[in-house]
């Protein structure tokens, strides 16, 4: 019957538009939620049977929610050192207390004061451990993903393993002349000491380097380690280094009074037949001396953790009181064949589904993954102006459908009166 169909169609419209209003309400409520993706009401017409020119059978409307998960939000600056955002495809990987994996676009990470882990809305942020140069160790797989623990490296100290010396030994020195320079060394506990190098001209184009015992940098009167080893140097007629004995040139420091492990230090004095390190040229002076250009070593003094930040590329960087900075983790980016097919959960997280496909893990900017930017957050994709426009349209449609219900009711009353 036409009146019944009209009533049914109007009721379906009331239901559909009320759901549309609910979706708009959620979008407006989350207009300031970091990483929020809007939901759109998708309408579909219904027919109860095949229509014809002589008889029309109304069916109404059905509504479904379309989740715009892959929609890109604007990136906004953040004052937080641990905030980050993805520009492009992909999601951050997070887990809950039970180890269940979720995915999110919310990169407003904070450090949990109780255990030092990076977290997003109560979920642990996942990444790969790296060496100090930022290279992932163990492979970029799901099996090697781990919770990012900023307290894992509270302090650093590295023993000196290489001393790189660039200097000119005066060719116009007399045989038997001695000159001294000082180099810094660090033991495995990060304690600084000094070692004096004595350069002695032993013959034409030949020198020796001997080394004093190590003394504390903080108190030169205290011997901190026993140094063994000496180096014989031969120079070419053009002033370049010809050879060292031993080759490679090394010294050892044992018996550290600090309790540190024994040290073996390679003396990097330059490449043979080049002027890249040690040279022997005339000083053109009445009082020849060693011209020291630089002495560099690779040891690191003890330093305690002073801060953690996430930089571009998803590098979790730790800063220390000795001025050193190291990359300790790299944030993983997960991509999906159909990101809009993910299952939406509370808290701005998503779960993998059969529709979305399985996650593929990448480093920032690789393999089709978006690029991670530090000190940024992704804004909500909800546009309040657009949502208000949608809300007005839904309100008008709802009012019109309610008027249809009222009209059909009056028509029923007229029909019943005629029957009586």
Automatic annotation (TrEMBL):
Which NCBIfam families does the annotation name? FlgEFG_subfam (TIGR03506), PRK05682.2-1 (NF004242)
Question: What name does the UniProt record give this protein?
Answer: Flagellar hook protein FlgE
Question: What SUPFAM superfamilies does the record tag this protein with?
Answer: Flagellar hook protein flgE
Subcellular location per the Swiss-Prot or TrEMBL entry: Bacterial flagellum basal body
The GO biological-process annotations, alphabetized, read as: bacterial-type flagellum-dependent swarming motility
The source organism is: Rhodoplanes roseus
User: Which is a Gene Ontology cellular component entry for this protein?
Assistant: cytosol
Q: Where is the Flagellar basal body rod protein N-terminal domain?
A: 8-37
What family, per the record? Belongs to the flagella basal body rod proteins family.
Q: Which residues form the Flagellar hook protein FlgE/F/G-like D1 domain?
A: 85-127
